[in-house]
Amino acid sequence: MQLLTVKNTSQGTLPNLIIIGAMKCGTTSLHYYLNLHPQISMSQEKELKFFLEEKNWHRGVEWYKSHFTTPAQVHGESSPSYTKYPFFEGVPERMYSLIPDAKLIYIVRDPIKRIISHYVHKYANGNENRTLTEALANFENNKYISRSLYYLQLKQYLAYYPDSNILILTLEDLYHNPQLSLQKTFRFLNVDNNFSINYMIKKYHDSAVKRRKNHWGNLISKFPVINQIDLLPSHLKWHMENIIYYPFSEKIERPVLTENLRLELIDYLRQDINCLRDYTKQEFKDWCV
User: Fold this and answer.
1) CATH (residue range 17-210+252-280)
2) Which residue pairs from 128-135 have beta carbons closer than 8 angstroms and sit at least 24 positions apart in sequence?
3) C-alpha angle 172/184/233, rounded to 5°?
4) I need a labelling partner for 69 at 20 to 30 A (CA). Which of 75, 114, 174, 214 fits?
């Protein structure tokens, strides 16, 4: 694996906080809430994907540091792609080689609800044309199911980072009691845990209101000027796409798992989730697994 050499520079600093996932588990909300704390500065572009060799690793350390220029005690970024093993490998090793003292946050949710939300996300973006049942026909190395094998993903990081540097949160707790979840996070980051967010703006990209581009929306997406949207920060890109494509899209009905497939998934995920329970000493009572 190619490692990078760190040079001293006044153009930014390296982060000491990484939200490593999981995808469709509230990382956008958590990123937003943490950035409200006066001692924390989260990257303006949420998903830097720096530690992915296939994405931005080649851009180098100076590019990465340039995203953390605001004075703060904690600098962080959030890239759910960091827990997409085995599709992206070597991420913890690259991360540890550069920021060995970083704090890591892994936010998870009911694994089957996450799978469905992930599928709806891909279907809405036009990157998935299969039915949910077809997409889950094979369990091994399945891009939807592997992201819900939380302990498998976490285990990659435990080979490098100590337990004291890793915090596990749940979307359910963040949704039902956000202030308590944030206080727990603030203590983990050694910042003022008495800081209170009075108005919690909902940032969840709810799968229930997802839309998929129709024929005209697909035609519009091919216009060269539309490609410029990809250059915007992720939060602006999301809003711009909603504005442009809303009239040329259709509401997606949330898919439902067949009972047999649901039971098969529960059986397949059970061992991994029980390992997560043993590691975290949390029961995850609201989960179906």
Assistant:
1) 3.40.50.300
2) 131/255, 132/255, 132/257, 133/257, 133/258, 133/261
3) 70
4) 174
